[in-house]
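Pilot study result, target chain (135 residues):
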Amino acid sequence: MASAVALDASPANVLRAMRGLIIGARLGYPDVLHLEVRDSVGGAWRLATQDAEFFPVDPSELLHKSIEDAAIDSATGELRLTLSAGATLVVAPAPREASDDPPNWELITPDGLALEFGPGLRWQISRADTSPAKA
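Predicted structure:
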């Protein structure tokens, strides 16, 4: 069963709730990865990279694998998804270049929360249907 995610949750708690089958994986422009994950109760999770590198670079390698674990490295901000069949997805933040760099990735939960991570070790959780506060 999918877990509800609270607006005041930490990134680790949000990622702990993200489990399910990757049903969509595609590249966007420029070099952006879009994933859609279906959880056990049919909820849709959407992950998109922005200012980050990801491995593997071919999204077809991710299709039809299940997310078994997800974690953020507290020193580097690297997102690591452990997948079924021994596969892994790694999202590595790009080096910070300016104070207005975009987030490295964004995750939208089935209940409409958005977790933005980056640049740096900055993160924010907000409603996906509202604009994030400007720092």
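One observation from the pilot: The chain has one domain: 11-123. A full batch analysis is planned for the follow-on phase.
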